[in-house]
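Dear H.,

Thanks for agreeing to be a second pair of eyes. The structure we're designing against is below in token form, covering all 338 positions.
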């Protein structure tokens, strides 16, 4: 199904394609290691890993960070932990250290990333953590209440329902799966029932979701739209973070003069910043990116580029990281400096 590109950037209102999935056996968790190929782990590296996994009750080895994951499996696993622990867990980005990346595979005799440790013991990778999350076993292990598996109420318009039925008719015996990631990116897929899903009915259509998606899907509205860019499903998610707002240069000046504690972020290249410096804005460099990982999510962020286009994508990224008040400077530096 086509995707109306003009609406694709609206957070919580994303136009979605239905994609089909051919069932495959995941290689994330189920494997039979050849123990003859296991190398000896360097004692110093072994000690370093032991210190890491015992530094927090819950510790995750992943690609990227919980707020900026760099692979889908890591993003999914970190998202599940974050929904339970509110970010109160340790993690290590294996992409920053090749020795740890390879060493952790030998340490737990587990060949894939991510890897979750609880109280110093290996739990498993993405597939196992997902199964434990959906059946409540992970909650129990962490001393939390069993999850609420009440099916969410979802509304599907007649037109959207008709299009979805047409698609399902082409795949007899398959089911409609709906997933919403921790960054609120959503997808529909056609595939077999896995058994752990939460099922809800809307417009006579059964929708299957994992636990985290079901919780994020409460009150969702699904419609079918047609625009000059194409046609496709449009999704409204009431629980999604507020959309990126446009801020005019005049409003930025006014709010800064009023002493508001907002953070202006310059996303331009170093050369462009040198040509037209903005003394009040901080460059989006490695130092600031590291700070934003643990920044107050309620602090207003204003992203600035040359003409207000590329900064929109950066602003959208940080909105998905949970920041509540994110702005893009309309017209960028060109409008600001004239």
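And this is the sequence the design step returned. I haven't edited it by hand at all.
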């Amino acid at each position: 199904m086509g995707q109306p590109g003009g609406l694709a950037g609206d957070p919580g209102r994303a136009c979605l394609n239905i994609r089909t999935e051919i069932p495959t056996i995941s290689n994330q968790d189920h494997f039979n290691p050849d123990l003859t190929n296991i190398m000896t782990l360097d004692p110093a590296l072994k000690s370093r890993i032991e210190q890491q996994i015992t530094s927090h009750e819950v510790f995750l080895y992943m690609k990227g960070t919980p707020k900026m994951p760099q692979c889908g499996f890591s993003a999914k696993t970190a998202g599940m932990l974050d929904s339970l622990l509110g970010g109160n867990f340790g993690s290590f980005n294996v992409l920053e250290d090749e020795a740890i990346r390879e060493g952790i595979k030998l340490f737990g005799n587990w060949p894939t990333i991510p890897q979750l440790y609880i109280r110093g013991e290996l739990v498993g990778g993405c597939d196992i953590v997902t199964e434990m999350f959906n059946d409540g076993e992970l909650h129990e292990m962490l001393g939390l209440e069993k999850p609420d598996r009440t099916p969410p109420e979802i509304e599907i318009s007649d037109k959207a329902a008709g299009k979805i039925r047409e698609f399902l008719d082409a795949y007899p015996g398959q089911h409609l799966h709906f997933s919403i990631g921790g960054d609120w990116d959503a997808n529909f897929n056609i595939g077999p029932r896995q058994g752990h899903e939460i099922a809800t009915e809307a417009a006579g259509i059964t929708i299957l979701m994992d636990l985290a998606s079901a919780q994020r899907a409460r009150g969702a509205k699904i419609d079918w739209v047609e625009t000059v860019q194409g046609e496709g499903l449009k999704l409204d998610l009431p629980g999604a973070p507020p959309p990126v707002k446009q801020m005019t240069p005049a409003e930025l000046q006014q709010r800064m003069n009023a002493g508001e504690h907002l953070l202006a972020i310059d996303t331009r290249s170093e050369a462009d910043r040198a040509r037209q410096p903005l003394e009040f804005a901080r460059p989006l460099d490695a130092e600031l990116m590291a700070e934003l990982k643990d920044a107050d999510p309620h602090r207003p962020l204003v992203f600035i580029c040359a003409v207000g286009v590329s900064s929109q994508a950066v602003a959208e990224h940080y909105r998905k990281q949970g920041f509540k008040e994110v702005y893009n400077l309309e017209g960028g530096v060109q409008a600001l400096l004239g």
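Two observations from my side: The chain has three domains: 5-20+150-236, 35-124, 245-337. DSSP finds twelve helices and 18 strands in the chain.

Warmly,
E.
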